[in-house]
Specification:
The complex is a heterodimer of chains A (about 575) and B (about 300). By secondary structure, chain A is mostly helical. Chain A has 23 helices and two strands. The radius of gyration of chain A is 27 Å and the shape is globular. Classes of the chains: A mainly alpha (about 575), B alpha/beta (about 300).
Chain lengths: ~575, ~300
């Protein structure tokens, strides 16, 4: 109990006091206080005056209440710039600076618990931004009182706002403990905030990964703030859900619009298997889970600088949870309960064939998303060669042949294959549900067609693991450039030059595992009824997929031999 | 744990990829001992000290601090440890007293006890009058002293000081020596590293000489110096005449090397103890070399250290 109290009692946290003293020195901070007050006051007062007393005759004056409510979003933008952007950048760069100065080591050696230290940095580094935020509270009070906004709504929005702030600042701490240059930390963390708030919510939903939009504050603004401004909200209609399994025709246009609204609206309930969750609750849950994850990463790095940010078990847990979230979010779609037709940019369901497109695209997007996540996890948990050798030497000293499979220093392939197993189990659940709902009747229907994509996914995952383990980060980066991206570019340029897709282009592109996954995904469809010239293109794609699988097998074999040779050299 | 040694290191090894920085180091330090770790740059001193401070994970090996296993129970070990890195930095945007206050608080001091402790340590390093200077305004030597004060805040039982005197002026060095001796007299143990043996020889009770990750010599200062000094001395003779023939005679002597001639004076390195030096003098007289003077000077500690390292 005492340790929990000391954890949350910031006034008893020496690291917090350190930053309170250094960041709030009057010379530095007065400038920022003035900037905050001037910008916020100007941004609130001027629009309020103009909306309640328009300077021209065309515009009707807004009621004071509505005019005040309309100012909440500009205020949230200013508060977001202060706490989410500036605060996150400051957290990452401040921590890296401490690491460069080696003063972080002093703090590491104190008997303070790692978590208490992390909490001190988490709330101490952006303390100037918290004070700047506080200076905007009178403006918020004005908006709430004049706008007659329910306090419950204000509480909900700012609960998510602060959860977001803590999540982003915790991300910045995790970034700061890994990166070595403060400017990179500053830029990477600021870019992360921009990406999570501005880019991801739009893109993720388009590809069916709706839950990723809840990493930002946007859904709660959609749910709680926009309705106050008179924006229409999504209201679920009884019996709205879709055409049922096997019915993918263009009929029931109204139904499709309802389904779209259900899936794309920020304020719509979040589908999760057969349940629906409130965006507010879902955002809170997701961000809390990520805060815990980043705190775990930070504590691990705090305890030992050369420890991996994630343990192998935790990484397996992240992959499992991600698969559960993807599957849960897609559940109403993959079980055929409703079909948001704007998915994957479909504009005309009559000609595009919604069922077929979903049957092709969802497994492919799943494969690519899982691959990207696994690649990220592998870069965190695969030991560098120096650590690997240390693990072997330590094990030998303890009369073992190698480090324990789950140790940071271990490069145990059977254990790492668990990632493949979990990814493929997830794939089969997704595929099985889609098949049960009748999606796969649009596809090839041959046994090989069912195996093609999971086979390629498994090979690509194993290949990525071997690549990172054998060539490490720099070698992998070079391979990504030369083997993953360059062949695709060559194939595109060549196809553009002759304005056709031939075996040459697909074979060249198939050197890249990225192209192989996409070609395999696309190839899944249209075997039942190819029209006209499509037969040739599908044959060309099939050649590409076959050579892609062959290239993958060859690259894995080469990397395996290389790793065996390297391992022998490293150990001896 | 009461009778446990201050520090026990068993078979410590540190690797950076192919490079072995510390190779099977074993060491035992008793309370009150000041142990000097000497060696050239790259010998493995800093790696050893960083492992002892739990800032670097060794390949393998055991470290116990007053009986507490450093890797199993780092929390208990940290309470006993004080660490001062090489070129120790102070936090630039904190005042000296704020810097010390941060760590006093981190070590659990609060209220007046905390401020008393900060004042005491500032006084100890003679920086009481600089308490309101910012970290970025301190000179190199002053920064070293501030960090030393920080290291002393929680009255550590084992101090790990990596090149603590670098950047300090002679007076500050003398003060450092006095502080360390006072702490040792109070029962604290100190590991202090330097690449200058003479810097340590007058404050340490024991020394170890490291080179290429190995501990070449380890023991009390006197015994270590004796063992590395062995029988080498720089001898200087002055003659009235026949310098050339004396030089030729010396060149034939198998215990003589590094001969240098300056007028009627010849300097050379002679391998042998005092007895052998006496025999050499009588032989020179017997050989009819007309000597004016004969003086033997023990080889300097640094050159002896270098000869030991070269020998390895």
């Amino acid at each position: 109990m005492n340790s929990i109290l000391s954890l949350v009692n910031l006034w008893d946290n020496p690291v917090f006091h350190r930053f309170r003293r250094s960041q709030l020195r009057s010379k530095k901070s007065i400038f920022w206080y003035l900037v905050t007050l001037i910008v916020t006051t100007f941004s609130i007062v001027l629009p309020y005056i103009l909306e309640t007393n328009p300077i021209n005759d065309f515009q009707a004056p807004l009621a004071r209440e509505q005019a005040a409510r309309n100012l909440w979003i500009p205020l949230l933008v200013i508060q977001g710039l202060i706490l989410l952007f500036k605060g996150t950048g400051q957290t990452a760069s401040g921590l890296i600076q401490d690491k460069i100065d080696e003063t972080l080591d002093y703090q590491r050696l104190t008997p303070m618990s790692p978590l208490r230290n992390v909490v001190g940095y988490l709330f101490g580094l952006p303390i100037l931004e918290y004070v700047m935020f506080t200076l905007t509270l009178p403006h918020l009070a004005f908006i709430v009182i004049v706008g007659n906004i329910p306090l419950g709504t204000v509480f909900s929005v700012y609960l998510i706002f602060f959860t977001c702030a803590i999540f982003y600042h915790m991300t910045a701490i995790a970034i700061g403990l890994v990166l070595k240059r403060w400017i990179f930390g500053y830029l990477v963390s600021m870019f992360s905030v921009f990406f999570l708030n501005a880019v991801l919510p739009g893109i993720a939903s388009q590809f069916g990964l709706k839950f990723l939009q809840f990493l930002s504050i946007v859904p709660v603004i959609g749910q709680k703030v926009l309705p106050l401004m008179g924006a229409p909200t999504f209201t679920p209609q009884p019996g709205q859900f879709g055409p049922g399994p096997g019915q993918f025709g263009p009929s029931n246009q109204f139904q499709r619009q309802q389904d779209d609204a259900a899936f794309f609206s920020f304020d719509a309930p979040v589908p999760f298997f057969d349940w629906t969750l409130s965006p507010f609750f879902f955002t809170l849950m997701l961000q809390a889970a990520l805060i815990v994850t980043f705190a775990t990463m930070a504590v691990r790095r705090w305890q030992k600088e050369n420890k991996h940010s994630l343990s192998k078990f935790y990484a397996l847990g992240i992959l499992t949870v991600f698969i559960i979230l993807v599957t849960g979010n897609l559940w109403p779609i993959i079980t055929g309960q409703y079909l948001p037709f704007q998915l994957f940019g479909i504009t005309d369901i009559a000609t595009d064939g919604l069922g077929e497109i979903l049957a092709i695209s969802l497994p492919m997007v799943y494969s690519i998303a899982i691959w990207l996540l696994c690649a990220f996890l592998f870069t965190n948990i695969v030991p560098n060669h120096s650590d690997y050798v240390r693990g072997v030497r330590r094990a030998r000293k303890q009369d073992r042949k190698a480090a324990l499979p789950w140790d940071d220093d271990s490069a145990n392939l059977p254990f790492m294959s668990l990632f493949l197993v979990i990814a493929l189990v997830g794939f089969w659940i997704l595929y099985g549900q889609m098949a049960g709902a009748g999606f796969m009747s649009f596809l090839d229907g041959t046994d090989f067609a069912h195996w093609r994509l999971p086979l390629v996914l498994g090979l690509v995952l194993f290949y990525s693991l071997m690549l990172i383990q054998t060539l490490q980060y720099r070698g992998t980066a070079l391979t990504v450039l030369l083997v993953w991206l360059l062949p695709i570019l060559v194939a595109i340029v060549s196809a553009a030059a002759i304005q056709d897709l031939t075996n040459f282009q697909t074979i060249v592109a198939s050197v890249s595992p990225l192209a192989t996954i996409i070609m395999t995904g696309v190839l899944a469809g249209e075997w039942v009824g190819p029209i006209g010239g499509a037969v040739d293109e599908l044959a060309v794609l099939l050649t590409g997929v076959r050579t892609g699988i062959l290239f993958l097998v060859i690259q894995i074999a080469v990397l395996s031999l290389w790793w065996r040779h390297l391992r022998r050299k490293l150990i001896n | 744990m009461d009778n446990a040694p201050a520090l026990e290191i068993d078979n410590l090894r540190v690797d950076y990829g192919d490079f072995t920085a510390v190779d099977d180091l074993s060491l035992r330090l008793e309370p009150g001992e000041i142990f000097g770790l000497v060696g050239p740059n790259g010998a493995g001193k800093t790696s050893t000290i960083r492992v002892l401070a739990s800032l670097l994970e060794p390949t393998y090996g055991d470290v116990r601090i007053f009986g507490h296993d450093l890797f199993e129970d780092p929390h208990s070990a940290h309470e006993l440890l004080g660490y001062m890195p090489d070129l120790a930095p102070a936090i630039p945007n904190l005042k000296v007293w704020e810097f010390l206050d941060l760590f006093a608080h981190s070590y659990g001091y609060t209220g007046s006890e905390k401020s008393d402790r900060v004042d005491f340590c500032l006084n100890k390093v003679k920086l009481s009058d600089k308490r309101n200077l910012m970290g970025k305004e301190l000179s190199r030597g002053m920064t070293q002293r501030v960090v030393l004060a920080k290291t002393l805040l929680h009255e550590p039982k084992l101090l790990l000081l990596d090149e603590p005197a670098s950047g300090m002026d002679p007076i500050a060095r003398r003060d450092l020596r006095l502080v360390l001796q006072e702490l040792a007299a109070g029962g604290a143990s100190i590991v202090v590293s330097s690449h200058i043996l003479s810097e340590l020889s007058d404050m340490c009770t024991s020394v170890g000489i490291m080179h290429l990750g190995k501990l070449l010599q380890y023991g009390s200062v006197a015994s270590t110096l004796q063992s590395i000094q062995s029988d080498a001395a720089m001898v200087r003779i002055e003659l009235i005449e026949a310098v050339d023939s004396a030089t030729s005679w010396l060149q034939q002597h198998d215990r003589v090397d590094e001969i240098a001639i300056e007028g009627f004076k010849i300097s050379f390195r002679f391998q042998g103890n005092k007895q052998d030096q006496s025999t050499l003098l009588s032989t020179l007289v017997r050989e009819d070399f007309r000597l004016v003077s004969f003086s033997a000077k023990e080889t300097g500690i640094e050159s002896l250290l270098m000869s030991l390292i070269d020998g390895e």
